[in-house]
Design brief:
By secondary structure, this protein is an alpha+beta fold. It is built from seven helices and eight strands.
Length: 203
């Protein structure tokens, strides 16, 4: 069984409300976790699931350790992992202290072989897919604009504003936190998301 896709409207760069061209995006079926991957590898290779899972856990630790040491980690048939940094913008390197440079994100680049294997993917249009009309950049921008008149947002409010599900809302909000646009206050069901002012962004 192949993957399913749905058509989404491109973001409008001018924000004038005019209809934009549609593009295709995969409709996620869910997430495959380490345990399931270990079981599948064990079935195909004859190793026990426990040993396979242990090797996958060890691989994750080795990748993390070497990324922290400044290496790009390349797995030949899969692709390469690297990290990016973030810091406040400066005009002169003397303006920047080392403690203000911090981890940004992990990036993965698929190998040529992986891309070739994915080339003949079977695709089927999902006519029943009900998805938001907004792409991630639009959803985030809508909330940031709304925050100009609102002191805080909850995940539920983000969902109502953008017509998306909770997992999408939490992913978007976490990315905004990573980008230094908002910060999270509280725990559990009492979590609030508040804007980061410009002074905080450059500290």
């Amino acid at each position: 069984m192949g993957a399913k896709y749905a058509l989404y409207e491109n973001p409008n760069p001018k924000g004038d409300g005019k209809k934009q061209p549609l593009h295709a995006r995969i409709v996620p079926k869910g997430t495959i976790h380490t345990q399931e991957i270990a079981e599948e590898i064990a079935d195909s290779c004859g190793y026990s699931t426990a040993i396979t899972k242990g090797m996958l856990d060890a691989l994750a630790k080795v990748i993390s350790k070497n990324l922290r040491r400044g290496y790009t980690v390349e797995l030949n048939d899969l692709g390469s992992f690297s990290i990016s940094l973030k810091c406040r913008p400066v005009m002169d390197k003397k303006e920047l202290r080392s403690w203000s440079v911090r981890f940004g994100n992990v990036h993965f680049k698929g190998s040529k072989k992986l891309k070739q294997q994915l080339g003949p993917i079977d695709l089927e249009r999902d006519s029943e897919a009900v998805a938001t009309h907004y792409v991630p950049e639009q959803r985030k921008g809508r909330m940031l604009n709304a925050m100009e008149e609102k002191e805080y947002f909850t995940a539920a409010q983000y969902m109502r504003l953008n017509g998306c599900n909770r997992s999408t809302a939490v992913r978007d909000l976490n990315e905004l936190i990573e980008d230094g646009k908002i910060k999270k206050l509280g725990y559990g069901k009492a979590v609030l998301y508040v804007p980061v002012n410009r002074k905080e962004e450059h500290e």
